């Protein structure tokens, strides 16, 4: 048997062993995780520093907005990657800009609630953040989320 044929046989045998190991270890029973329910409150892990808090705010805000719009957080996250994709998302879901803006604000308020419940903000900080969230321009909120998770 020449070297090329031996390499081919070895590669086929290795591939067969890999498939057998996959099956033996329960690979046929694998089910990917479904998307999480964006309407469930988000419990933040212990956060340290502005970067981690910003990331958790963005995730919670996306959950809150997705819940309000009746879509998954993953779908909304992809929609927020650019203004063009957000416009296409709005068109596909028959949403007006005002509905998306309202959902973004609801999402940010939800994020503040999640942060306070998780201990990242005390009640005074949460109060001040809620006032700011109600007054902030929505396009800035969306740009913030886009920059944090994008």
What does this structure look like?
The chain is an all-alpha fold. The mean pLDDT is about 85. Helix content is about 70%, strand content about 0%.
Present the secondary structure layout.
Layout: H1 3-24, H2 49-69, H3 73-79, H4 83-92, H5 97-117, H6 123-135, H7 138-149
Helix pairs in contact: 2-3, 2-5, 2-7, 5-6, 5-7
> Regions with pLDDT < 50 over 5+ consecutive residues?
none
Name the shape in a single word. Answer: elongated
Give the rounded overall mean pLDDT: 84
Number of strand elements? 0
Radius of gyration: 23 Å
How much of the polypeptide forms β-strand, as a percent range? under 5%
Specify the biggest β-sheet.
none
Count of DSSP H/I helices: 7
In quaternary terms, these chains amount to single chain
Structural class: mainly alpha
Element-by-element helix/strand order: HHHHHHH
| Percentage of residues assigned to helices | over 70%
Terminal Cα separation, in Å? 54 Å
Keywords:
single chain, 150 residues, mainly alpha, 7 helices
Give me a quick take on this structure.
This protein has 7 helices and no strands. The chain is mostly helical and 150 residues long.
